[in-house]
Amino acid sequence: MRSTIHPVSRPVVFRDRAAGFQLLTRSTLDAQHTVEWEDGTTYPVVDVDISSASHPFYTGTSRVVDTGGRVERFERRYGRTATVRP
């Protein structure tokens, strides 16, 4: 492997402020802010909007969309068949 073409991988903290969740992992992202981790070491931090702690799929708070009701409402409003033009 050539040493000059690969990005630098370093420990980075990903923080989800909405859920109060932090994850320390390796990344090539460059962060401007830092945070002190549980071991007392300072790491760069990247704030994310959604993580596994706040995503509805992982937390079990996802809603089931009633597509059948939406289709029926559309058919009542606009009719069952549409005019097809050649």
Automatic annotation (TrEMBL):
Protein name in the entry: Large ribosomal subunit protein bL31B
Signal peptide: none
Record flagged with keyword Ribonucleoprotein: yes
Any Pfam family: Ribosomal_L31
Similarity comment: family membership: Belongs to the bacterial ribosomal protein bL31 family. Type B subfamily.
Name of the encoding gene: rpmE2
Keyword entries, A-Z: Ribonucleoprotein, Ribosomal protein
GO cellular-component term (any): ribosome
Assembly mode: Part of the 50S ribosomal subunit.
